[in-house]
Design a protein that fits this description.
single chain; 368 residues; alpha/beta; 6-stranded parallel sheet; 17 helices; 12 strands
Length: 368
């Protein structure tokens, strides 16, 4: 019966069911939904209370059973691994397929990066990752390097996967070419993100200490929220900050982007971790969207999507001396840096908008 329905539906649009809870902490799910909006498909949205237990998930399924039965593909967005086991069972019941956005490895985040968990806790995160990539028929990833790392970490032999870069939230970010500013009394540098090893805030602080000893007038502005995961790092990093750093804590992204357009340089990530080498994070795309020059660590993932010296400025990861020298070079050659920022913005708009990224999803839909 399912095969007959499937054959009839091949003559019409595919039905994609998005099962999720609202999550505004990361723009990735919003960007992927914008990509789906460009496809000639029927989209069914079923929302569920945040962080639901199995019983709540089961009730959601029963209340929307017909929609689940009609779906060709069930999509679980990034960070919502908890829905995967039941979603997988549902696909087996109704002959549909499961897609998960494997954007973040929990093992990488909590064990390799945060170094917060060992023993049985690390095994738990490994199993979550293993189930999250083995149960779905297809997965989305943000870079090829990230997928290659997942494959090695989880001993993955074969997998249907589609690389969909992070891109940017087109409803949040307004693209405009910035004016070239006359050098003010000081050179303003802005960083925003989380204080975790991936971001390399400690590298930025040490670079600021080096630059404080020069005659250059430089202002560093750091926007980074405190959370239960980073309270120790925040406390230690804020002790004895050099005078050229202003720490602002949390601010809405719209306010930070508005402020950054009046800055001279935007900092990306500088951590020397496995994950840092394999991703191009949201903040780098957001920084490029401003048209201001972005300075970030030189990594395989970054080099696979953008051209160093043409779209962005770079230095070695985990190296305060190199970062300080790269900042000095940007100041001394700001006309060049300014035009790199403009080209980086153009590369972003032309190649990482939701319509372009949706072509990756189009290939997936055609494979159903």
């Amino acid at each position: 019966m399912r095969s007959d329905r499937k054959m009839n539906k091949k003559q019409t649009n595919q039905n994609i069911l998005r099962w999720y809870w609202e999550d505004s902490d990361n723009p990735r799910p919003t960007i992927i939904r914008q990509c789906f909006g460009h496809l000639d498909i029927n989209i069914i949205d079923i929302t569920i209370p945040r962080n639901p237990g199995f019983w709540v998930q089961w009730q959601s399924y029963l209340q929307n059973k017909q929609a689940f039965r009609n779906a060709d593909l069930i999509y679980i967005q990034a960070f919502q691994n908890k829905l995967i086991p039941l979603a997988w069972i549902i696909t087996k019941l109704h002959g549909s397929q499961l897609l998960f956005d494997f954007f973040v490895s929990q093992y990488d985040a909590f064990v390799n990066d945060y170094k917060k968990h060992k023993g049985l806790q690390s095994v738990k995160f490994y199993l979550i990752d293993w189930l999250s990539i083995y149960l779905p028929a297809h997965v989305l990833v943000d870079t090829q390097h990230h997928f290659d790392h997942f494959s090695n970490l989880l001993n993955l032999k074969e997998k249907s996967y589609f690389v969909v870069p992070v891109g940017f939230d087109e409803n949040l970010i307004e693209i405009s070419i910035p004016k070239k500013q006359a050098m003010a009394n000081s050179f303003k540098i802005v960083f925003w993100g989380n204080i975790i090893p991936l971001q390399g805030v400690d590298v930025i602080i040490e670079a600021a200490r080096i630059l404080e000893k020069t005659s250059l007038k430089i202002e560093f502005h750091i926007y980074a929220p405190e959370s239960r995961w980073n309270v120790e790092w925040v406390t230690s990093l804020r002790q004895g900050l050099p005078e050229n750093i202003s720490y602002h804590g949390f601010q809405p992204l719209q306010e930070i982007l508005k402020f950054s357009k009046d800055c001279d340089l935007i900092l990306g990530i500088f951590g020397n971790t496995i994950k840092a080498k394999n991703v191009v994070p949201n903040k780098v795309y957001q920084g490029l969207s401003t048209g201001r020059p972005v300075l970030t660590a030189r990594t395989p993932a970054m080099e696979s999507l953008f051209i160093e010296g043409q779209h962005y400025l770079s230095c070695g990861p985990g190296n305060p001396e190199e970062l300080a020298n790269a900042i000095i070079n940007a100041i001394q050659n700001y006309d060049q840096a300014y035009h790199i920022g403009i080209r980086g913005q153009r590369q972003l708009v032309d190649n990482f908008n939701s319509k372009i990224l949706s072509e990756k999803l189009h290939n997936l839909i055609n494979a159903l």
